[in-house]
Amino acid sequence: MAEISEPALDKSAAVEEGTTTVANEGDNAYEEHVQQGPESKRTLPELPTEIWREVFQQITIPPRTVFLSRTEAPLSLLHTCRKWRVLALRTPALWAEINIRVKKTSEAAPDTSYTKIYPRPEILRLKLAASARHPLSISISPAAGPPYIEEEDITAKSVFMLFRGLFMTSPRWKRLSLRLPGMSSGYFLSHFKVVSQFPELETFSLSTTYSMKKRIPSSPRFGNFVADRCFPSQFWTHSPKLRKLDLDITVSGPRFLDPPPRHPPPLTGWATSASRIPFQQLTELTLDGGELQIITMEELFEIIQVARELVTFKALHVRTRSDQPEYVDPTPCLPHLRYLELEICGMDQDAFDPIDDEHVSITVILSYFSAPSLVDLRLGWDDRLDLESLGIFLERSGCSLETFALNDSPIESDDLIACLKLLPTVKSFIRTMLCPLGSNPYAPEWTRLREFAEWDDETSQFALCPLLEEITIDAGSLELEDEGTEDELNPDEVDDGYFFWEMVKCRLERSQLPDGTSRFKKVTLTGKNRRPIPEYEMLEKLRLPPFNLNLVEIKDWPNGL
């Protein structure tokens, strides 16, 4: 990407000439070997060029590995034979996906390091040249493992020259993903002077952090100031074709101050007017704040009123205080919205806005609009589930939810059952990231799950969510409490501790379809259980005929659950 001196160019040309000679010798040997082989195999290289080009282009269809290496398919084609190399270099779509890793490598001297770019600059130049005028998909992220990339590392000359070279191709950008710290408008300022628009950009994903060097003032307008000075809004304000925007932005508080602030004031306004996000043209939107940024109910409603084309919407770190927005008539409608994820701030490890009595349920915002096409609703960190607002939203929307998630929301069993009564069309129920045993304000999750299972079996005769196909819960939900703890449970009172297994078994038996298979078919256990699960061996047996249960274990909480 950087300017290369004349001696370096001469050396590079000599290397390329030697490489070409070796490659030609390999081509001749390969073709001679093919001609000596069986006739059935000799005809393979004689396929028409158009067919080979179509075969090559299949490797560009996702999912694919996100990291480049010598063994990656497009590069491997260059080392097979002369014909394949020529075809590959004349197929721009093969080279249009550019995935770059930035790695901080330790030097031999202590406390020193330098920043490297993978793949090598000559490979990047090859891909940019071979891609011709084809739209580009570019991803830049830190390499896995220590030493980790920090905000000051992106000022390295190698990283700066990388962006200088890439910005020369910005009119061809179709998808851009940046996952490095300090990706601010100031960093890109010199590049934005060269390029004023991104005419083909359709998808932009930004995951970055900013460190505040001074104490954050208690001003409601400071969030606007941060967004205006830090966020590289030129990427989305000058992209007429932008449809998918994913912002994962963390503003770190000044912890180094003496004394450090216990609860720095939250930043508001960063996701609305100051950010200059073109909500009206987006179909997918993710707003994920960090330590300080929050989205107020008023700001969330402001987005809903203008973002009428949304299909997927994730709003994380929402502050649900009682200062709610006013209703408008007619009620806004998001006709295309199919996936909605809302998460309250203040209960996770990143946010500083503490939950208190002034907060309301996240479901309150649902009563402000309708979404007739919604099929997937996910709520997080909500311990005050407002069933009335949820019911109003479902009735007004007339939608048929297929997936419902209630994550890290320690509600009572009666509220959980009443909630599921409102969702007769749900096929997938997700309840994960729950409080550890004995640490939630209600009974242990084990007790709530047992009461839910008993009600489902004995009271409703499995009329609760009759279309249910799969359930996802924390593995810790099936743990029994240790003896002597405050919430000690008597296994004799819970049908030998196999209540969940019994519910799953009955679901498998009573949800038979005409073809003999069961409608209910999958159980996923997430998280890491601290003690053995008494029921797990019994659940394992349900994998066998005639039940054929699909039992899945995920030791972590994946994104989107």
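^ that was protein a. below is b, sequence first then the tokens
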Amino acid sequence: MSVIKRHFQVNLKGMKLMQKKIDNLQNAMPQLGQRFIEMSLDYLYERAAFYIESSTGNGGYEPTGELLAGLKKDYELGKVFNDCVHAAWVEYGTGMIGTGTHPNPPTGYQYDVNAHGEQGWTYLGDDGKFYHTQGLTAHRFMYNAITDYRMNYKKIFSQAFNEVVGGAI
């Protein structure tokens, strides 16, 4: 973050000017917090969308657009989420194939809930054909977006600070 340097004369006029700048900075803090949240959510949303688009559609996974359409952000609640019914399966993987492919699965997440093991299972696709699978590797679209955010949140904060506070002092 850049350092803002201001010079003030040590006299009554200079002290009043300094107090005004401090008051302006205090008044800008709620706006700064909200703007940082908005910019953070925008960044996470864009990165998650990028990872959905770049990691799905390879292998046995057929992209339908539902996963990308399910990606949402809520500024009031301060969260990015995916309300697609199969989002967790794509994020964390499924079956024997998915086991161990996500670095941080939630506690209690089960990869092989029906104990199919290495035999896998057969299912009827939307196209009326039967398919056999042993599962799906994790696509980690949210995990990767959060990892990117951890490397860039200071830059995002600096941008929010300059946008909101830059004119206040």
